[in-house]
């Protein structure tokens, strides 16, 4: 089957006053349709840069980024994005925040249909009854749920998330992981998730990509062979434990503290 996302031999350096700063140096990532790809790597290695490439917000010096059989050369409307701090508009209520991408991508869609779509998503993430609230009236976890709904309301080709759960406390974060899996079960989507949290990567991912230290290359790809209907408890079982072990070792290598150099 064709890959939905195909990143081939991507190299990129930022031009800085001090000269070129190589950030990506041989990035190869393949993500199939409806697959969830988690990406981990040392701080500052180039993970957010990778999200900008997939969204078409920048072009690499070398290599190719393909999305749905088309080469990405300019910003894509068909990409949904979610970040650590949900950027919800305070002058709109939650429902109208979730609807926003539809206004841009599907301007001819009747308001009635937009509302129905947004309400259905808000219900899936447990936010029914909060449609009329302002973002500041919600907790951080609830805001993040709303921002996830907004990111997928227009059925984007891919949902790109850059540490969306990073600012949440542990329990809220685990709740959101489960919500994310429940959401995917009801409405499959393709996702790229950048995270610092190895447990998060194993729980949410179908594959976990470990990037090397800067300039980043694809250092290791872990196939997460856990059942699709997993719950948080699975993280305490042997198979997940072994995967976490492998990832920890790979991160040490990426940070240059491993026993052996990566290949
Ligand atoms: N627009 C830019 N111009 C110059 N340098 C940049 C730019 N954006 C990022 N960088 C540098 O490129 C490197 C990679 O940045 P990037 O934000 O992609 O890393 P990251 O892996 O997301 O980091 P973190 O784990 O801290 O989120 C960093 O050294 C950063 O300072
Ligand atoms: Mg980043």
Automatic annotation (TrEMBL):
Q: Which GO terms describe its molecular function?
A: ATP binding; ATP hydrolysis activity
Q: Which Pfam families match?
A: ABC_tran
User: In the UniProt record, does the keyword Hydrolase occur?
Assistant: no
Identify the keywords attached in UniProt to this record, alphabetized. Answer: ATP-binding, Nucleotide-binding, Transport
Name the domain of life this protein comes from.
Bacteria
Q: Does the keyword Nucleotide-binding apply?
A: yes
Q: Which residues cross the membrane?
A: none
ABC transporter domain span: 5-238
**CDD domains, per this entry?**
ABC_NrtD_SsuB_transporters
What family is this protein classified in?
Belongs to the ABC transporter superfamily.
Q: What is this protein called?
A: NitT/TauT family transport system ATP-binding protein
Q: Which organism is it from?
A: Roseivivax halotolerans
């Amino acid at each position: 089957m064709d890959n939905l996302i195909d990143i081939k031999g991507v190299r990129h350096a930022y031009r800085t006053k001090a000269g070129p700063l190589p950030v990506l140096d041989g990035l190869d990532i393949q993500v199939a349709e409806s697959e969830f790809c988690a990406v981990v790597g040392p701080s500052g290695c180039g993970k957010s840069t990778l999200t900008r490439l997939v969204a078409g917000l920048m072009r690499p010096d070398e290599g190719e980024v393909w999305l749905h059989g088309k080469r990405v050369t300019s910003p894509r409307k068909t990409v949904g994005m979610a970040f650590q701090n949900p950027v919800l508009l305070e002058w709109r209520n939650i429902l109208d925040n979730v609807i926003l991408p539809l206004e841009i991508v599907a301007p001819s869609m009747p308001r009635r249909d937009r509302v129905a779509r947004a309400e259905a998503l808000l219900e899936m993430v447990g936010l029914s009854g909060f449609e009329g609230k302002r973002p500041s009236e919600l907790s951080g976890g609830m805001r993040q749920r709303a921002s996830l709904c907004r990111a997928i309301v227009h059925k984007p080709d891919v949902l790109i998330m850059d540490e969306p759960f990073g600012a949440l406390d542990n329990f809220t974060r685990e709740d959101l992981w489960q919500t994310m899996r429940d959401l995917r079960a009801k409405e499959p989507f393709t996702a790229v998730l950048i995270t610092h949290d190895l447990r998060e990567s194993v729980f949410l991912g179908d594959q976990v990509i470990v990037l090397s230290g800067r300039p980043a290359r694809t250092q290791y790809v872990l196939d997460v062979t856990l059942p699709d209907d997993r719950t948080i408890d699975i993280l305490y079982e042997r198979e997940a434990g072994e995967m976490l072990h492998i990832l920890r070792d790979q991160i040490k290598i990426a940070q240059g503290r491993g026993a052996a150099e990566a290949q």
